[in-house]
Specification:
By secondary structure, the protein is an alpha/beta fold. About 40% of the residues lie in helices and about 15% in strands. α16 packs antiparallel against α17. The protein is globular, with a radius of gyration of 24 Å. The structure holds cobalamin and iron/sulfur cluster (SF4). The site of iron/sulfur cluster has 12 residues, from α7.
Length: about 575
């Protein structure tokens, strides 16, 4: 293929190459930022895969939970952040169909087209570059996001600039703007079009958490970790908001703009930065904020806090890598993850565990026991991922050096939810999928739907904290209980019946929890299941039938213009 790539621009612009590309029009340039085109949840020639939908939970967490799977979409936050931080006129196109992208190119005469992608979608990037050359030949093409880590990417796609690492500073500099100006945080509703048990939840202002992006990267540098590697690897990361005060101000602004009191902290290891978190807590206390927070954190970072501190900080959902007790990752050293999970849940903190299938020490003989161990954590959610050497990571370098990469596996299939892309000493490629699928199923069968599990954790938290002296803590649990107890009781009513065909014991546990909810909650929520329960059972069964017929979901196309003057 003809290749125009004029520069592959490395990690940080301030330490980057001496001659940094700049667009001749600077901040007057008209910019289009786009995510890759859909549809996503179907097999096609551009690399979409039915197994790889644009839904976080259904893709890699609750995918075996049928109609109980939590389904929702998330915007492309990287390009939202870039758009909010440049003064050039800029359109953001999220989840376009090919025709939407083509129409925008034909009608708007863009100077710059920025495409954001991860590795699996490289085939779409190639096609989008081709379309730009054909429909908007004056545009410079900038490609960013994890796709840029593919070795030899500049020969695979026809782009002018390929940006590795942090993109806000790069784009500002490219457009002749002040790259180190403070970062302006866009208002982001964390998820949308949420569905569960066959119904789409109403979207009310303030009901869904706001996404906050404090940083990108993670200094822990685990060998397989692509986000850590992409932003500098071990010991490095890029902070957008250094201090607890800065973070507090951003959250307060989002509280105003979006009417939220809960936040999804999109930081790979939020709790690692204790000083920042504790300053944030001070500010929350001073101002009486009853904010709730969903965070990612490694076990060693969680252990820097007492349960009390986590609860006061409003941590209500926590994503923790369990990986495998025998893998030797430093973040897990000295932690009994089962005990930690139990404790967190007993304090009302929902835990999402993440376990790797196919580590070097796994064999067909020990993997079942390792999966059983993972499942016995009884987390609220559990992600299982294949051990996957992804370009850019130390693991990839190692596998390449050892000659173990399967070079005939398409990038579209390198996402950890299908089959190995490397030769494992003891487990075949086909078996990797069998073990992965079994892990998801086993977790569901033994522990029940995640919706049931989060209801149980909420109740435990409420029982523990409903009379707590700190009003902020008490209020947070009371609010959540008030908002959700009726809905949860009704969902439990339907789950109890529907789960009988999967496992009677779990169905009885669901029933016991429903009874407890009945005892603890008010009249309305005691009566609600009689009406809402049968309806949910009906929608659940209808959804099962739809899914059996192959029903999938796609995100809507979103177009947003900023600094824009209509001609
Ligand atoms: C939200 C999210 C999703 C959302 C999708 C959002 C969307 N609209 O695309 C959902 C949940 C659907 C999703 C799905 C998947 N995801 Co995902 N996802 C994430 C997550 C958690 C956050 C992304 C994010 O917003 N980060 C914060 C922003 C600020 O960072 P950023 O996107 O990297 O953007 C920065 C730079 O990369 C750069 N940049 C980005 N775009 C551009 C564009 C231009 C022009 C420029 C100049 C710069 C630039 O500038 C930005 C600011 O610095 C990341 C993990 C993470 N911590 O990043 C994984 C991650 C991106 N996902 C990943 C994967 C593998 C997947 C899946 C394949 C599922 C799976 N099996 O794991 C599917 C693919 C679905 C599909 N069909 O495409 C991997 C990517 C691996 C890789 N090396 O390619 C990540 C890194 C997770 C991981 N650690 O493995 N994902
Ligand atoms: S602790 Fe988590 S985010 Fe950090 S490097 Fe390891 S896997 Fe990546």
């Amino acid at each position: 293929m003809e290749n125009h790539a004029s520069s592959v621009d490395l990690v940080q612009p301030q330490t980057g190459p001496a001659i940094f590309p700049q667009h001749p029009k600077g901040a007057q340039a008209k910019v289009l930022l786009s995510s890759v085109f859909g549809p996503y949840a179907q097999d096609d020639e551009f690399g979409s895969r039915a197994i790889n939908p644009m839904e976080l939970y259904h893709n890699q967490v609750t995918r075996a939970q049928g109609s109980f799977s939590l389904r929702m979409f998330h915007r492309s936050w990287g390009i939202m952040l870039i758009q909010a931080n440049i003064s050039a006129p800029c359109t953001l196109l999220d989840f376009p169909e090919r025709e939407d992208f083509a129409r925008e190119l034909r009608t708007q005469a863009y100077d710059v087209v920025g495409i954001s992608s991860i590795i699996v979608n490289v085939g779409k990037v190639r096609e989008m570059c081709r379309m730009v050359r054909e429909l908007s030949p004056q545009s410079e093409i900038v490609v960013g996001g994890h796709v840029a880590a593919i070795p030899g990417i500049e020969t695979m796609i026809d782009a002018d600039h390929i940006v590795r690492g942090e993109g806000v500073r790069w784009m500002r500099r490219y457009l002749g703007e002040e790259e180190n100006a403070p970062v302006r945080h866009p208002a982001i509703v964390s998820g949308f079009d949420t569905r569960i048990m066959g119904i789409r939840l109403p979207q009310r202002r303030g009901a869904t958490a706001a996404t906050i992006i404090p940083s990108v990267g993670c200094p822990m540098g685990c060998n397989f970790c692509t986000t850590s590697a992409f932003f500098g690897g071990k010991g490095k990361f890029v902070n957008f908001f250094e201090t607890g005060d800065e973070l507090f101000e951003v959250m307060r602004q989002m509280e105003d703009e979006l009417g939220v009191s809960s936040f999804f902290m999109m930081d790979e290891n939020f709790l690692l930065h204790r000083e920042r978190a504790m300053r944030l807590l001070e500010r929350m206390k001073e101002t009486g904020k009853t904010w709730a927070m969903s965070v990612f954190a490694s076990a060693n970072a969680i252990r820097k806090y007492t349960m009390q501190e986590l609860v006061e900080l409003g941590v209500s959902w926590l994503w923790m890598g369990l990986e495998s007790p025998r893998a030797g990752y430093s973040k897990l050293q000295g932690t009994d993850t089962q005990e930690l999970t139990r404790e967190l849940r007993a304090h009302g903190i929902r835990v999402q565990g993440s376990t790797i299938i196919g580590l070097e020490h796994h064999t067909p003989d020990n993997i079942v026991a390792e999966i059983e161990h993972a499942v016995s954590h009884n987390t609220d959610f559990h992600q299982f991922m294949l051990y996957t050497p992804v370009p850019g990571t130390p693991l990839y370098e190692q596998m390449a050096a050892e000659g173990r990469l399967m070079n005939d596996v398409e990038y579209a299939d390198v996402h950890g939810q299908f089959k190995f892309n490397f030769r494992h000493a003891a487990i075949s490629r086909d078996d990797s999928k069998r073990f992965l699928d079994w892990a998801f199923w086993r977790d569901f069968e033994l522990n029940g739907p995640s919706l049931y599990r989060i209801a149980r954790t909420l109740l435990a938290g409420w029982q523990r904290y409903k009379d707590w002296p700190d009003v902020r803590v008490r209020q947070r649990f009371t609010n959540e209980m008030k908002r959700l107890s009726g809905v949860y009781s009704s969902a439990l009513w339907a789950m109890e019946r529907e789960f009988r065909k999967v496992d009677r014991k779990v169905s009885q546990q669901i029933r016991a929890l429903r009874r407890e909810f009945q005892r603890e909650s008010g009249v309305v929520s005691r009566l609600m299941p009689a009406v809402l329960g049968p309806m949910l059972l009906w929608t659940t069964r209808r959804e099962e039938r739809r899914l059996a017929r192959g029903k999938t979901y796609e995100p809507p196309t979103i177009l947003e213009r900023r600094n824009w003057v209509e001609v």
